Amino acid sequence: MANLYIIISAFVSAVILGRIIIPNILIISLRKRLFDVPDERKVHKRPIPRLGGVTFFPVILFSLCVFTAVRLMTGHGPADTSTTDLVCEFLFLTGGLTLLYIVGIADDLIGVRYRKKFLVQIISAAMFPLSGLYINNFYGLFGIYLIPAEVGIPLTMLLVVFITNAINLIDGIDGLASGLSMVALLVFGVLFVHFHMWSYAMLAFVTVGVIIPFFSYNVFGSADLGRKIFMGDTGSLTLGYILSFFVIKYCMYEPDMLLTMKTSPVLVSFSVLMVPCLDVIRVVLRRARNKRS
Predict the structure, then answer these.
(1) How far is CA 149 from CA 128, 133, 184, 258, in A?
(2) Which ranges of 221-262 does DSSP label H, i.e. alpha helix?
(3) Residues 10 and 63: beta-carbon distance below 8 Å
(4) pTM of the shown model
(5) How much is the mean pLDDT over the chain?
């Protein structure tokens, strides 16, 4: 029960920090004229700040670190047998997020060529196999069960890049990327609470917490009053990478967890991300048919 209270506190902390920081980002963006300028490809008609996603990574990292320390100090931290694996996973996750955060800010401010972004995404995707996380079982989907590492590792990297870009590509309508991400994060958060994987649940709910104040400004804010903001590539890459982390973690075969699962983890993971994943496939097929890059 104590772990639940700590997760709720971390969630509230993320909401409060996001609510404090986003208005300041709006002020800085307006003063420095850091806008997403409308053109023929965009829906909005007024210049709107696009640095809302700058809030995500620092708030998530702060809340996660502080309340993980609280768990350890109160004796509710992870078991000794799993601590090393957990620390490795989260350190590599933080490394990948740092790379994407840097390239996302650069793209939002001055623009980055897609090849460079794609290279950074591949390097970030490699962080998961380095930490020991990769797709190693399809749980009978398509008649496939165990997957060897030489197949699972490149498949995992492909999946991470795919999901990260899926969230990035659907970030074109107010509240779409953030709303779908919140739904997926809530599902993963509840699942991890069910399996008593408290650190992963905390990450999920902290991420939801920082999205909520952004969502209110993005969907309900007024562009005329200077109260509207977009997440930009910084935010969409951060959310996509965290969601891909949850997909890989939840899908990775662990005998102890399999005994308590009644549904294929692969089906559960991709059902919550069906909309962005199918949208990527639709966009790729449409552009291929129209012979566009």
Answers:
(1) 13, 10, 27, 19
(2) 232-251, 255-258
(3) yes
(4) 0.91
(5) 86
H and E: helices and strands count for the chain: 12, 2
Q: How far is CA 57 from the centre of its chain?
A: 10
pLDDT in tens, 123-140: 999 999 999 899 888 877
Token pair in block for residue 118: 């794609």
**Is residue 60 within 8 Å of 207, Cβ to Cβ?**
yes
- The per-residue pLDDT for 40 is 56
pLDDT in tens, 172-215: 788 888 999 999 999 999 999 988 889 999 999 999 999 999 99
Residues 6+ apart with CB under 8 A from 213: 15, 18, 19, 22
Dump pLDDT digits (tens) for 6-57: 999 999 999 999 999 999 998 888 887 777 665 555 554 567 888 889 999 9
Distance between CA atoms of residues 48 and 284, nearest Å:
28
Tell me the one-letter amino acid at 34.
L
**Cα distance between residue 141 and residue 137, in whole Å:** 9
| Domain locations in the chain as residue ranges | 2-289
Q: In angstroms, how far is CA 236 from the centroid of its own chain?
A: 7
Q: Reduced to 3 states, what is the DSSP secondary structure of residue 191?
A: helix
Query: Contact, 52 vs 25, CB < 8 A?
Result: yes
Q: Which two tokens stand for residue 103?
A: 């390239």
